[in-house]
Amino acid sequence: MKHSLQLPTFEKKMKMLTNRTFTMIKPDAVKNGHIGAILNDISEAGFKIIAMKYIQLNKEQAGAFYAVHKERPFYNDLIEFMTSGPIVAAILEKEGAVEDFRKLIGATDPAQADEGTIRQKYAKSIDANAVHGSDSNENAAIEGDFFFSKLERF
Ligand code: ATP
Ligand code: MG
């Protein structure tokens, strides 16, 4: 019997690159009981969930994920915090996903975040800021691949 592996076309690949972002609901928001409210905001804003899991990162995994921030003064605290409890990781889809999701979550520091944004509503400080959102299409793909295999995407 002939098996054919469905390879995405070039157009489909390009669309996946610009229409997807990666997010985490961070340990503070999970502990404070905001998973449901945040997923609801994400869904109401028109994002479709392509992949999702509930896991706790170890130091090695969090260190690898945040390797770009290795030289920043807050790196150790960031790793400590991100491994302090479970997180929800997800790949989201919407046209212009990266930019629209950054708008939905608001500024890194919740005190600077616009009214109605996820960080303004659910975050208390710059280090415990409720959610992560990819900052570019390239990083969205890298971060999604870090957490999810092809079989875990729908
Ligand atoms: P994220 O990558 O989590 O979506 P971001 O892109 O808005 O956030 P980054 O500059 O990538 O911000 O920083 C990554 C994370 O490191 C921030 O979300 C925050 O939790 C933490 N962080 C950033 N700046 C500071 C700071 N000055 N002090 C403490 N923690 C910080
Ligand atoms: Mg960032």
Draw up the topology in text.
Layout: H1 10-19, E1 20-25, H2 27-31, H3 35-44, E2 48-55, H4 59-65, H5 75-82, E3 87-93, H6 97-105, H7 118-122, E4 131-133, H8 137-147
Antiparallel strand pairs: 1-3, 1-4, 2-3
The structure holds adenosine-5'-triphosphate and magnesium ion (MG).
Fold and architecture overview:
The chain is α+β, with helices and mostly antiparallel strands and 154 residues long. The protein has eight helices and four strands, in the order αβααβααβααβα. The chain has helices at residues 10-19, 27-31, 35-44, 59-65, 75-82, 97-105, 118-122, 137-147, and strands at 20-25, 48-55, 87-93, 131-133. It has a four-stranded antiparallel sheet with strand order 2-3-1-4. The two termini are 26 Å apart. The chain binds adenosine-5'-triphosphate (ATP) and magnesium ion. Adenosine-5'-triphosphate binds at residues 69, 74, 78, 108, 126-127, 129, 132-133, 135.
